[in-house]
Amino acid sequence: MAGAAPAAAAARFKLIFRVPPTHLAACKKAIFAAGAGRYPGPGNYTECCWTTLGTGQFRPGDAANPHIGKVGELEEVPEAQVETLCVGEDTIKKAVEALKTAHPYEEPSYEVFRLEDI
Questions:
Q1: Measured between alpha carbons, how far is 30 from 12 in angstroms, rounded to an integer?
Q2: Residue 97 resides in a domain
Q3: Domain range holding 54?
Q4: Of 82, 81, 83, 87, which is closest to residue 115 (Cα–Cα)?
């Protein structure tokens, strides 16, 4: 008799976003509450991320309502970049939704990558 096939592992995603340092804690709290930053395994690690500081640049268009800067003017601002793991499609969708709600920008900058298990 053949053994049962192992359960398929949930898809894993990396969420990367940039945010002004003034809103860093609120955005991290929101994505972690949505399930981001949890590593599967016996260690039960939560709220895991990598944060770096850098400079963001943008020029708001005519119809923009910028949180920082003025329409038509080039703006450079300090920003934090956060990278975290999201396990499961439902988790990444909830984390992005939470990020958009907590983020102060009209158009938050974020990226989502599907990870491969090698």
A1: 19
A2: yes
A3: 17-115
A4: 87
